[in-house]
Automatic annotation (TrEMBL):
Residue span of region Disordered: 1-32, 297-319
Polar residues compositional bias, start-end: 1-10
Biased composition (Basic residues): 11-21
Any GO BP annotation: phosphorelay signal transduction system
Occurrences of domain OmpR/PhoB-type (ranges): 41-143
Upper lineage: Bacteria, Bacillati, Actinomycetota, Actinomycetes, Pseudonocardiales
Family: Belongs to the AfsR/DnrI/RedD regulatory family.
PROSITE patterns: OMPR_PHOB
Full protein name: AAA family ATPase
Phosphoprotein recorded as keyword: no
PANTHER family linked: TRANSCRIPTIONAL REGULATOR REDD (PTHR35807:SF1), TRANSCRIPTIONAL REGULATOR REDD-RELATED (PTHR35807)
InterPro entries from the UniProt entry: AAA_16, AfsR-DnrI-RedD_regulator, BTAD, Nucleotide_cyclase, OmpR/PhoB-type_DNA-bd, P-loop_NTPase, Sig_transdc_resp-reg_C-effctor, TPR-like_helical_dom_sf
Residue ranges of DNA binding: 41-143
Length: 955
């Protein structure tokens, strides 16, 4: 059974055409705009003879009464003409609006009928307020401006902006509110429901949001930040990311004294921008975050703190409007996308829903509900999920919908655990929590609006929730296996399977494997350390590599050797995978590790250890005190109430601390997982080497390749900066690793025992191919084989036969090795670091063949060849594809997948009808091209047919 949950938010518009700096100004304009608005406002009301409304479901009211508008085509024609009122609309344009690219042969006739029906309807109400004229090259709806709500909206907004520009905040707010109140829902909501998607509607929604921004601007300037928070929260949550709205919400929250909430809005926005568009927030939003962190006095309106309301605050406009939308060219296109994805669903039910006062008054219940929702939203987004819907006292959140993370199951558990904890402290609330993981069909609408999720996983989660007792949390088997190592479960009694505890992030269990290969990388690090020691000059080296490839292990081995030989002391700091509580955690880790502070130490012990070590480092009391003042809050040993100047000084103190340490003995500082680091830490790390004195210090940063997406020029053009790519192990090294793992588990001779028909050397080849030189993949495959080959073992890892794998005649059709789910998740997560278009190019390449080039991929995807060429090149740089030495007849580079699993996973995420269509397009392209490959043509024709048949019988 399939369950579907859908968003309440609108999916239109990505950004408004309006820019604050482009607003019309000047006296003449002001007078005209005000006059027009007044005319419109005065002459219209529900009681007027004829009123057309498009700001909501399409309506025609005559003398206040709704008039039936006829069939869908007639209503759509009227809707489209109203959006273009008093302008000639070409027939071809109308045909496209009504039927898109699939205009039936009778379309013109049908359009004529619709127009004729409209004329009859308008004439029958006989006021002459509106008529449809035949006007070359099509039709024109003549209607008075005062008869259409859209024209009134524009006129009133114009008036409001004029007031805003003159600093009349209160009247501007009132006027703009009036304009916004004309909206009864998304424009032409009834027609949108039937599937129309006109660009005019997007523009209209942008106009509404621009008006909302102006309204908020006026309210903020008038000191009414409390009043706008709720509306802003809804808009920021439901609309595609608009940086100006986010900035306004941050400012409003900050002025309400909710600094932490303001910062959490920033982090949520940043997560959305990065996951949906691969972009960091714009400069101004970043500046605002910094100003909030620094409690910049310019953000508040006076020393008395937040004020509920004030009649007039002379506030320079630039301060508030400093967050313009970025040009749309910066955004990659985001077509609606439906994919098969592994998703973790989290259900939270509170019971009983009592209010703080213990009553059931709906307003009190509503207030409690909002408080709980805000807790849920915060925790869910902290762990990278999305809050989807709430029904009564049940909330649904999903992980892996907008963007897949390899640890979505664990994230869902951590979020559920944190929510349960926080709800425990609410009076009268006991939460029941369930998490289920499974494959789902996910549709992400354009612009980042909330997704639709269909799949049995939701149903399973609901069933599971039914078995959970109040105050408990339970997860399904797949979730439990996927989160092993990070979560402790009750293993007996009535609570068996319940979540007991989650381990701190970096304490999760690790697998220890014999170390193989990496001599070259170790030699490079050794050389750099020698260099640092000899020249007594700091160096920064970044190790880049895909997840599980062995960055941390390499450093660990290097560290052990460096310490054992006494060549350097090593300290490690890690960026947390989730959450945003402490952007400088990595720096704090370094301080704590130097001072020997462990997580179990009391604050007093930790402070004592810090003081002792800092005193050792510095000779004069003043410097010691200065260092301690800044290092205590950094290490979380004191409330962080630093002012703006002190934050900069804290960095300075940390650098000084490093210098002093390195001056005493050569030092290696490791900063792990910079791809998840916050901007502050990235900026700090980027120029660390330049700001340190002449000391023997080697800073080693590790990062996944996504870092380059955020910082394309990371480390470029600097003298003492090196970037080292950690690539896959060779086939030999991979087999050595596999062999020792198989031997450790007594599996060497069992590989083919359950399948005597399979040739062992082929199985070995297959396994090496599957692992693709990734040590983590090797460990996960062997762990999976151990389950499958040793009967009676408790299942420790789920595995999959990925749907539709082996889509090409060039690979073996029946690979006997299944895929560990963990490996699938890692690859799916990597694919989701790509933009939608890049990912779709990769999926089209996966459909085409083992080797692909721009022309056929452009033919399948509908993109231009040049664009596809650029994307293929980028995908090569990111390590998804590798260029072969072959060229097409037109001289285009041919690419192959660097790892066959990337191809399999990319392909498996396509829904069946999409696969069928793409195979058919491949067949059509091969048929019409000069490429002679009968086998490939046959393959695509068959798969197109096959997949089409499967989808039509099952869908
Ligand atoms: N050269 C190697 N020989 C043996 N085992 C290795 C090697 N490299 C890595 N491993 C093992 O593979 C697993 C993953 O490695 P590691 O954690 O270092 O990956 P990573 O690149 O740091 O990944 P991430 O991006 O997730 O941090 C670990 O269990 C590690 O011990
Ligand atoms: Mg690592």
């Amino acid at each position: 059974m399939s369950t579907r949950t859908s968003s309440h938010g609108t999916s239109r518009n990505r950004r408004g055409p309006h820019r604050s700096g482009q607003r019309p100004g000047g006296h003449l304009r002001t007078t005209n705009a005000t006059a027009t608005a007044n005319r419109l406002i005065q002459s219209t009301s529900w009681g007027d003879p004829m009123q057309f409304n498009v700001l909501g479901p399409l309506e025609l009211r005559v003398a206040g009464e709704p008039v039936p508008l006829g069939g869908l085509k007639q209503r759509s024609t009227l809707g489209y003409l109203l959006l273009n009122a008093n302008k000639a609309v070409a027939t071809s344009q109308l045909l496209r609006a009504l039927w898109g690219d699939r205009t039936p042969p009778t379309a013109r006739k049908m359009l004529q009928n619709a127009v004729s029906g409209l004329r009859t309807m308008l004439a029958s109400h006989g006021t002459g307020d509106a008529e449809v004229l035949t006007h070359a090259p099509g039709y024109l709806l003549r209607v008075g401006d005062d008869r259409v709500d859209l024209s009134r909206f524009h006129a009133i907004v114009e008036e409001g902006r004029t007031e805003l520009a003159s600093g009349s905040w209160n009247s501007a707010a009132r006027t703009l509110r009036r304009a916004l109140e004309l909206w009864r829902g998304p424009a032409l909501a009834d027609l949108v429901e039937t599937g129309i998607d006109w660009p005019e509607l997007t523009a209209l929604q942008n106009s509404r949001l621009a008006a909302l921004e102006d309204y908020v601007e006026a309210e903020l300037a008038a000191g009414r930040h409390h009043e706008v928070v709720a509306e802003l929260e809804t808009a920021v949550e439901t609309e595609p990311p608009r940086e100006k709205l986010c900035g306004q919400l941050m400012l409003a929250l900050y002025r309400c004294g909710r600094q932490a909430d303001a910062l959490s809005v920033y982090r949520r926005t940043r997560t959305r921008l990065i996951s949906e568009f691969g972009l960091d927030p714009g400069h101004q939003l970043q500046q605002l975050e910094r100003a909030i962190l620094n409690q910049d006095p310019s953000l508040t309106r006076g020393p008395a703190g937040p004020v509920r309301s004030a009649p007039h605050v002379p506030r320079p406009r630039e301060e508030i409007t400093a967050l313009p939308a970025r040009p749309s060219a910066e955004r990659p296109p985001a077509p609606p996308i439906t994919e098969r994805k592994w998703v973790s669903a989290l259900l939270v039910q509170t019971e009983p829903t009592r209010t703080a006062s213990g009553g059931h008054d709906p307003e009190d219940v509503d207030q409690t509900f909002r408080q709980l929702t805000s807790i849920l939203r915060e925790e869910v987004s902290r762990f990278g999920g999305t809050l989807h819907s709430a029904f009564g006292a049940v909330w649904l959140a999903a992980f892996g919908v907008r963007r897949t993370y390899e640890d979505d199951a664990e994230r869902a558990i951590r979020a559920g655990f944190a929510i349960r904890r926080r709800l425990e402290s609410q009076p009268g609330v006991a939460a029941r929590v369930a998490v289920a993981t499974g494959e789902a069909l996910v549709t992400n609408p354009p612009g980042g609006a909330q997704a639709e999720v269909s799949g049995d996983v939701l149903e399973s989660c609901m069933r599971l929730l039914g078995s959970v007792r109040p105050g408990e949390m339970r997860v399904c088997d797949t979730t439990r296996l996927a989160s092993r190592g990070a979560v402790t479960y009750a293993d007996s009694g009535p609570s068996a399977g319940d979540v007991i505890a989650v381990r701190p992030e970096h304490e999760a269990a690790t697998i220890s494997l014999p170390f193989v290969a990496r001599e070259r990388e170790q030699a490079t690090l050794d050389r750099l350390l020698d260099d640092v020691r000899e020249r007594r000059s700091p160096q920064l080296v970044t190790l880049l590599g895909e997840p599980g490839i062995g960055k941390s292990r390499l450093i660990n081995e290097f560290r052990l050797a460096a310490e054992a030989s006494g060549r350097a002391r090593c300290l490690v700091g890690r960026t947390p995978r989730f959450g945003w509580n402490a952007p400088l955690t990595a720096l704090a880790d370094v301080v704590k590790s130097y001072c020997g502070i462990s997580p179990g130490d009391s604050t007093a012990t930790a402070v004592r250890k810090l003081s002792h070590h800092v005193q050792q480092l510095s000779d004069d009391a003043e410097t010691t005190e200065w260092l301690l003042t800044h290092l205590r809050p950094l290490a979380g040993l004191q409330d962080d109430s630093r002012g703006p100047d002190e934050v900069g000084e804290a960095f300075e103190a940390w650098r000084r601390f490093l210098e002093e340490m390195a001056a005493r003995e050569p030092l290696v500082v490791v900063l792990e997982d910079l791809q998840s680091a916050d901007e502050t830490l990235l900026n700090f790390a980027a120029d660390l080497d330049e700001r340190l004195g002449p000391v023997p210090l080697l800073v080693i940063a590790t990062a996944r390749p996504e870092l380059l997406r955020r910082r394309p020029s990371w480390g470029c053009g600097k003298r003492d900066v090196t970037t080292l790519t950690v690539g896959p192990l060779s086939r030999d090294a991979t087999w050595r690793l596999l062999e020792s793992l198989l031997a450790r588990h007594g599996l060497c001779h069992r590989l083919t025992s359950g399948a005597p028909h399979i040739d062992e050397s082929r199985l070995r080849r297959e396994l090496i191919d599957r692992v693709g030189g990734n040590p983590l993949f090797a460990a996960e495959h062997v762990r999976m084989l151990r389950n499958e080959l040793l009967p009676g073992r408790e299942l420790a890892i789920p595995s999959l036969a990925i749907s539709g794998a082996a889509p090409s005649p060039s690979t073996s059709p029946d690979c006997p090795v299944r895929l560990p789910q963990s490996v699938y998740n890692i690859i799916a997560a990597r694919l989701d670091t790509l933009s939608r278009t890049e990912k779709s190019v990769l999926q089209n390449a996966a459909v085409f063949d083992r080797v692909g080039w721009a022309e056929p991929i452009a033919a399948i995807s509908g993109l231009g060849r040049g664009e596809v060429t650029d994307h293929l090149h980028y995908l090569e740089q990111r390590g998804f594809l590798a260029r072969t030495r072959e060229r097409s007849r037109q001289g285009e580079v041919k690419y192959e997948f660097r790892h066959s699993l990337v191809r399999d996973v990319a392909y498996s995420q396509l829904p069946r009808p999409d696969r069928a269509e793409k195979h058919q397009r491949c067949a059509a392209w091969l048929d019409g091209s000069a490429t002679e490959n009968a086998e490939l043509l046959e393959h695509h024709s068959q798969r197109g047919e096959l997949t089409f048949r499967t989808s039509s019988t099952r869908d």
